Amino acid sequence: QVYVVFSEELKCWCRALVESIWCQADGFQLRCFLVDYAKYCSVASKNIRVLAGAFAKIPHRAKKCRLHCTKPLTLYIDYCENTAKLGPAKRWDTAAIHYFRKLLE
Asked: Of 21, 45, 72, 82, whose Cβ has the fewest other Cβ atoms within 10 Å?
């Protein structure tokens, strides 16, 4: 279900899918995917609203997707042997994400 959340970063109300919810001392926090900006953000539970009927039917501008058969790699540096090798990683590193976004632009 798509909701409307207030993004502190963007300073506006945005359509979002709720990914997860966790409890903090001052209330609940929601991890959301902004469907029109392709961004993830954390939002306080007081900043979420139900989306009005007609607005729920507008198509999303962003879609979550994955690159088929593309696995993250990282550079392993061995200072003792003075070598560097590419190897598998659990997550994409920040430099790789930044490089990929530049390619898309």
From this structure: 82
For residue 67, being part of any structural domain is answered with no
**Domain containing 35: what range?**
2-57
DSSP letter for each residue of 31-52: EEEETTTTEEEEEEGGGEEEPP
Q: Tens digits of per-residue pLDDT, 37-76?
A: 888 999 999 999 998 878 778 887 777 777 777 888 888 8
104/38 Cα distance (integer angstroms): 13
**Quick one: CA torsion of 100, 3, 42, 27, rounded to 10 degrees?**
-170
Question: Is residue 18 in a domain?
Answer: yes
30 domain-assigned: yes
